[in-house]
Design brief:
By secondary structure, the protein is an alpha/beta fold. The protein is built from 16 helices and 13 strands. It has a 6-stranded parallel β-sheet with strand order 9-8-7-10-11-12, sandwiched between helices. Strands 6-5-4-3-13 form a 5-stranded parallel β-sheet. A two-stranded parallel ribbon has the order 1-2. The radius of gyration is 23 Å and the shape is globular.
């Protein structure tokens, strides 16, 4: 197995090729950007792509690796993946719907989205397999570009934890990124409507200083029920969550990815054996209702969110925690493993007509480039 990227993988026994970051001088950077924009506006998308010195440099750096399979997880790198794959199959791990990634930015919509859509039209029909993080996003890709995907969620590995008892103060927690698009102010507004026996801890990651984080802190200043805690490492998040009662996530959708969001924090709440409290986001709401393991507000307003939480008794929270415990056994990374291996097997032509799949070879017997 060979991993390619800007930072080494977190797994042992994986060969690593580091992509060099190129720092173009100011004038060269502006000329490169202008050339790509002009070529794209003229419909010369292939020329625009390969005129980029980053893409040319990375293609030279990765030439001759001789992979049996290439897995790529960035839409913008699909042409590069096919360029270095040769005759080897390419599997696309799409995650979210990339043509809507920064849809609230006019500059991004004018400059970047047309190129992403060109890449999707040209390269998605050629992939040997494709994965997306939710069914809504998979459906959008198929509707727009005719390529079907399997759903591989952002679930962490299974943790053998037990639900904790609900105390006199109902403890809420949120993990996330202090981005204005995440609308965390709505969560603070909901807290303002909840009683004194509720508390909220926020663990927010991202660059410092953060103007928006400072705004959130100022808004919550003076309310002892709301704390901003230092983030914990990813591998510790689930165990950290276990001492809480409710994991909150309220996100009014502004674009496709937010509409069909199924984030890692949702599954971290479940593995932590705490109750997810969400707005009516369809992907999360479907899971919550299937397992009866969470709280779904009627709409995305802070008032509805607060009313739904306040209307859930301690006895009901205890019951929901038990249901979360049962759901955690299924909603974990281990369940996704077979899905991913099946995509890889089919891409390599190992699946039989009956759907049976032989065991995959070890990392030393096959070379997959990711």
């Amino acid at each position: 197995m060979i991993s390619v990227g800007f930072g080494p993988p977190s797994y042992e026994d994986v060969d690593f090729v580091e992509l060099e970051r190129i720092d173009l001088p100011g004038p060269a950077h502006l000329l490169n950007r202008a050339t790509r924009i002009a070529s794209g506006r003229l419909g010369l998308n292939r020329r625009a792509y390969w005129s980029d010195p980053y893409h040319r440099h990375w293609r030279r750096a990765l030439a001759g690796l001789g992979a049996d399979l290439v897995i790529v997880n960035d839409t913008m790198l699909l042409p590069l993946a096919f360029s270095i794959a040769g005759d080897a199959p390419v599997v696309f791990d799409a995650h979210e719907y990339s043509p809507s990634e920064f849809e609230t930015s006019l500059a991004w919509k004018l400059v970047v989205r047309p190129r992403l859509r060109w890449i999707c039209r040209r390269y998605l029909p050629r992939v040997a397999g494709m994965m997306a993080v939710s069914q809504g996003i998979a459906d959008r890709y198929e509707r727009e570009f005719g390529t079907s995907s399997v759903v591989v969620t952002n679930a962490p590995r299974y943790e053998a934890l037990a639900p904790t008892e609900v105390g006199d103060t109902i403890r809420l927690v949120h993990f996330g990124w202090p981005d204005p698009q995440r609308r965390l102010g709505d969560t603070l507004a909901a807290m303002e409507l909840l009683g004194e026996h509720y508390s909220l801890d926020l663990l927010l990651v991202g660059p410092r200083p953060s103007k928006h984080l400072d705004e959130l802190r100022r808004r919550a200043a003076g309310d002892p029920r709301i704390r901003f805690l230092d983030p914990v490492p990813m591998r510790e998040i689930v165990h950290f969550a276990n001492s809480y009662d409710i994991g909150v996530f309220l996100l009014p959708p502004q674009h496709t990815n937010q509409e069909f969001t199924l984030p890692n924090k949702f599954f971290e709440y479940i593995q932590g054996r705490i109750v997810p409290a969400i707005g009516p986001s369809p992907e999360m709401a479907q899971i919550v209702r299937e397992w009866d393991c969470g709280i779904v507000a009627e709409d995305y307003t802070p008032a509805a969110f607060a009313a739904t939480i306040a209307g859930t008794s301690r006895a009901r929270l205890e019951e929901l925690k038990e249901n979360v415990d049962r759901a955690a056994r299924e909603l974990c990374a281990e369940r996704n493993r077979g899905i991913v291996l099946d995509v890889v097997a089919r891409a390599l032509g190992w699946a039989t007509s009956s759907g049976d799949r032989p065991s995959l070879p070890s990392a030393g017997e096959a070379r997959a480039l990711r």
